[in-house]
Design goal:
The complex is a heterodimer of chains A (112) and B (117). Chain A is mainly beta. Chain A has strands at residues 3-6, 11-14, 19-21, 23-26, 32-38, 44-50, 56-59, 62-65, 75-77, 86-93, 100-102, 106-111. The radius of gyration of chain A is 13 Å and the shape is globular. Chain A starts with a strand and ends with a strand. Chain B is mainly beta and 117 residues long. In chain B, strands 2, 4, 5, 6, 9, 10 and 11 form a 7-stranded mixed beta sheet that branches. In chain B, strands 1-3-8-7 form a 4-stranded antiparallel beta sheet, with no helix packed on it. The chains are: A mainly beta (112), B mainly beta (117). Chains A and B meet through strand 6 and strand 11 of A and strand 10 of B.
Chain lengths: 112, 117
């Protein structure tokens, strides 16, 4: 079945540091890939997505590139801010499936 | 009110109680979802409704009973829960239920934090 593996947290960075959160997936066919963010006390919000190989999703300074050869969709940001502190979830939606499959989430804390 | 709202935001209940969680979406969507979010575990899809019909039941115990009276409202009725049912319950909606390769973005509510004592 489809599955998502993302790096265990928590991740703690200083403001303006570079962020990478690794995500790899297992799926048949050609899934669509997503990053969701959950700020404290809130529900999940879609951060970015990519629907085919080599697509790059980007939003709010975050980027992720759909790499079919390495089955990866790593999240990156060049300079994090305190306001980026949240839990980040990698997810996939299989091409023949009706369900979103989520990773366990990675908690990011950014200190001033 | 916009987006997806959930009430209550926090709920503490004993194992013999009966309570209900409510979700309302103001987006004109036709599909609604219940997820369970537990610490250190991936989000678990519990139920999916499309046009008020249940289309997915992910082997959820019968002590959880969903109800979708119309496309804007979704309930989760709870009875005789166990302490391990303590979690954040998230509701989501999407324009349609994704099928046939067409994927519709899901919009999430803030969740209900449930504690079973």
């Amino acid at each position: 079945g489809n599955s998502v593996t993302q790096m265990e947290g928590p991740v703690t960075l200083s403001e303006e540091a570079f962020l990478t959160i690794n995500c790899t997936y297992t799926a048949t066919g050609y899934p669509s890939l997503f990053w969701y963010v959950q700020y404290p006390g809130e529900g999940l919000q879609l951060l970015l997505k990519a629907t085919k190989a080599d697509d790059k999703g980007s939003n709010k300074g975050f980027e992720a590139t759909y790499r079919k050869e390495t089955t990866s969709f790593h999240l990156e940001k060049g300079s994090v801010q305190v306001s980026d502190s949240a839990v980040y979830f990698c997810a996939l939606h299989g091409s023949g499936s009706e369900k979103l499959v989520f990773g366990k989430g990675t908690k990011l804390t950014v200190n001033p | 009110e916009t987006g997806v709202t959930q009430t209550p935001r926090h709920l503490v209940m004993g194992m013999t109680n009966k309570k209900s969680l409510k979700c309302e979406q103001h987006l004109g969507h036709n599909a609604m979802y219940w997820y369970k979010q537990s610490a250190k575990k991936p989000l678990e899809l519990m139920f999916v409704y499309s046009l008020e019909e249940r289309v997915e039941n992910n082997s959820v115990p019968s002590r959880f009973s969903p109800e979708c009276p119309n496309s804007s409202h979704l309930f989760l009725h709870l009875h005789t829960l166990q302490p391990e049912d303590s979690a954040l319950y998230l509701c989501a909606s999407s324009q349609e239920f994704s099928s046939g390769g067409r994927i519709h973005e899901q919009y999430f509510g803030p969740g209900t934090r449930l504690t079973v004592t």
